[in-house]
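[job 4471] stage=fold_predict status=RUNNING
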Amino acid sequence: MASATHEKLDDGTIFGIGNPLLDIGAEVPVSLLEGYNLKPNDAILAREEHKDLNETILRDFPNHHFVAGGSTQNTMRAATWLLQQPGVCIYMGCVGQDKYHQLLHDAATLAGLTLSYQVYVDPEGHIQTGTCAVLISGNNRSLVANLGAANHFTIDHLDDPKNCEYIEKAKIFYSAGFFYTVCPEAIMRICEHADKNNKLFCTNLSAPFICEVFGDRLMKSMPYVDYLFGNETESRSFAKHQLKMDTTDVREIAKALSELPKKNTKRSRVVIITQGPDATILAVAGQDIKEFEVKKPLEITDTNGAGDSFVGGFLAYLALGKTHEEAIQAGAYCAFECIQQYGCTYPEKPNFDSTTFTV
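[job 4471] inference complete, writing structure tokens
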């Protein structure tokens, strides 16, 4: 069944919370990279020498473009795109009081998200909305991220009456692992709400450094996790540092993750580990491990955002009540389309049919 014919979901069915970033992309000459001491194919956090980089892009490259970025926001956009239903996803995070906030708000709204940004007002005016410069040179892509105001989310934003309403209405909650570095208290409150109301809480290992440095925060939420996502590198890092497992076997790790203690015993934990072009692993506690081959496009333009896109497609089909196999197909389709574009973007309309798109 093609996505355009899906039954309509309630607005606000999927709730995401994370670190909002405005992606500012442009095709640039290598000389610009050299001027800022950047490598053609790299991803770094902005340093002092990069403080005017965004303004340089806006001033000197008129073909620049804006994308509502940040891992969880990417996932919400992917789900909205696949479902072709604006308003189905709520997204929450912290932004600054500046022009980048407005640009980000416009880009995310255009993508169909319902937004509830917390606005951080820096008395000294130094902390701005989070950004990520996306510098494309030939087939290379250099990312320079500045988390800025995204680091300043506070739990009291959840107490706003409108946000309480969003939380009450949502059926599926999702946060990428990056947000555990910012406000783990907010995650735990959402975990407890989901558990108390028999809703789904989903999360992502997100990066090896999250698993290593902030893994204790992930472990605290784990009893509440119904769906856990990650890739092979992240899962191995988590197994080594948090589970003290002496193995790199992704199947074995996925099984162990699925069988960690869980508060809501009415349903088993589901673990999905992607492996780039290699088979995706599905582990459901108490069941045999399954593998799904990955469909590869003829040409890959940019793999950044593929994991976020996969989760978006999966959550969209989870919300529709589809099987895990169909949800994996939907996720693989979103990733398939994403890696054929620059940045975490998609064609104007999806063309997904679970009966013909096989992974």
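[job 4471] summary: The mean pLDDT is 93.
[job 4471] exit 0
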